[in-house]
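Notes to self after the Tuesday call (sharing in case useful).
The group wants a holo model before anyone commits to mutagenesis around the pocket. I volunteered. Ligand is MTE. Logging inputs and output together so the record is complete.
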Amino acid sequence: MKDNPKSKSHESAINHVSGKAIYTDDQRLPSGMLYLWPVLSSYAKAKILKIDTANLNHIPGFVTLLTADDIPGINNTGTIKHDEVLLPHDEVNYWGQPVVWVVAETEIAAQKAAEMIKIDYEVLTPILTIQDAILNNSVHGDTNIMRRGNLTTALQKSDFILTGNIEIQGQDHFYLETQVAWVIPNLEDGYQVYSSTQHPSETQAIISEVLGIPRNQIVVTCLRMGGGFGGKETQANPIAAIAALAAKKTGCPARVRLKRDQDMITTGKRHPFLAQYQVGFNSDGQLLALDIDLYSDGGWSVDLSFPIMQRAMFHIDNCYYIPNLEVRGQVVKTNKVSNTAFRGFGGPQGMAIIEQIIDKIARKLSLPPETIRERNFYHGEGETNTTHYGQEIVDNRIVRVWEEVKQKSNFESRKLEIEQFNQNHDYQKRGLAMTPVKFGISFTKTEYNQAGALILIYQDGSIQLNHGGTEMGQGLQTKMLQVASQALGVNIKRFRIMPTSTDKVPNTSATAASSGSDLNGQAVKNACEILKQRLAEVAAKVLNLDEPQDLIFEEDWIYCQSYPRYKIAFDEVVKQAYNQRVSLSATGYYRTPNIDYDPKLGKGRPFYYYAYGAAVSEVEIDGFTGTFKLRQVDIVQDVGESLNPLIDIGQIEGGFVQGMGWLTMEELVWDEQGRLKTFAPSTYKIPTIKEIPKNFNVHLLKRAAQDGVIYGSKAVGEPPFMLAISVREGIRDAIAAFGNRDFILLASPATPEAILNAIEQVQLKLVNSSEP
Ligand code: MTE
Ligand code: HPA
Ligand code: MOS
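Result:
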């Protein structure tokens, strides 16, 4: 892999590790910068009776306060639904909600003033769990339904029916760089915003609404993020809006940067899910019917909860053909943070649920779970290869990745070894599990599937590259440089990648849904092709050729295919182009073809294609402590013809480890008053280098170029996250070895406590097996 010329290091790798890479908050700040500090709500649900701000003027450096009354435009930062106040007027809806922001000359002064503000509340009873919300009919929006086939008859015909409830918990993004933004008021009522945002155009739109000025007055720029993971798709907006509001009110530059605890307390997380299902199947394990209700905890406002629920519903089948299926999705409303996008966008919840159901079927029938998985894969043509929402899976690669990982991991022989180990050890047990992933690529909001680029060539032959995507560590800029260099046939060193900015490319989509390279890559290529065509005409004249179409652009030279000796340097063509008054800048544009979805019918072709992968995880658990060790992981991931294998493998490793954190160690705990107890790394355990498996083998599927995607590559950002379901199922397999029950109840995340409880359950050897 290392000798693959496409395996370029991340374009900022050296600057990342040497500390030279500039993040939003590292920029040289203008003089007169003001700082903000929030006053957070003390209750999860309460009426605001009085805000006492007396004596603040005595604090040196205190400047002003921001309350709901200061908002000149619309007091809302909700994008899908206008239900998210930037600053509350009369009630608070979650513990930690910012009620007032203090503006001061220093951060310390702002903090001091904030501590002096007293707010009187009338405390109300909050709704804190999905179950509580269901009982109180506290919901966001209507139930979404997708269905096919005939459930009633299919259930009647099934040899077996199982029912159950599954709860999957949330996850904090824990990006290394917390939410941050700063704003300079400039010119006449213009605002330059620097924001750590995945979606600069939406940040611009929200600021425009909050300030009540048109979008062209606002420029939002994102240099790079220290991680986003979905947590900066919408949740960066209120932070930037508050900084902009302070800049507007004071006429001074203003800055918000959240401390780690403030970030964890105030920002939305991955949605917890509750599933209630009934599944019908045959004695050979063939799935016949699935009737399932999904509930997600949206928190106090809608944010992106609807498309996230929808993606969970799109992925409730994972890789399995379920002929009769009805899935109902309901987002519930609680007095918690507003949950948001997180790597996989609902897909992980949907898939973790169906994989647990599959495991339960397997144990019921005393068959290996991987056998049930294989027997139910989408296959063939037509109906058996078509999802419940009506999309046919052209180019189905499930079996390919599955067989390859099975063989590469020596699955069968290791299974026997593990059985032996388990027979010889009473208190340590090992488990092995293999799980597949099929993940739909495209924004499910069809209009988001477009992108733009802007390329500027200067007279000296140096080039600025702009596009609508943002860099959050995933290597998008590296890939875009590679695409541009390949498309224009020039050395990569000619390019300077510019910070993402709304004054370069307008109306951009979030960098999300793993489609950053797919969309922006095509737009960049398009801009290069436009420039190439113009330059080819200039070059053809110089070379005395009639046909500019024949010209090849390669390694900084332009030459004629049939007479390679007729060549001209790229720099020279650029100079000539300027002299001949030929434009040296171009915008590129792309929209994904051939996708559509009708939400009313619950049918269509929402995804341009699917990304596939499969993983085998081997774990060992300790019966005394409930801890587990991940002994070995083998992955085969389909990334098409990789744009950059080095970066893709990094994405696969990182995604997998983050998924493992979600399912096995990251536990969010709220108390009975809705106060988050786990708002620091001391109480919220994320994976570290110690938890990374010693044997971690990642393979990219070979000969896998995908038609119609940028240079045959496939999206890689989110799909590997869900491969971590194999760790959870591996742990379940190890727990099973402690007893002989026909189902294994394992809470999520599979913390030592959850594992010990599960071991206790299997050792009870109860015959009556009804899952609560
Ligand atoms: N990798 C790093 N290092 N940091 C991130 O924040 N975000 C993930 C993934 N990989 C993320 C990451 C998420 S949620 C998505 S949607 C994709 O990257 C977005 O980038 P892409 O579309 O360019 O792959
Ligand atoms: N993924 C991520 N973000 C999104 C999506 C999606 O499918 N749709 C809207 N925002
Ligand atoms: Mo990723 S959750 O689509 O930002």
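Two things stood out.
Residues 198, 230, 233, 341-343, 345, 512-513, 718 surround dioxothiomolybdenum(VI) ion (ligand 3) (CB under 6 Å).
Residues 516-542 form the longest helix (27 residues).
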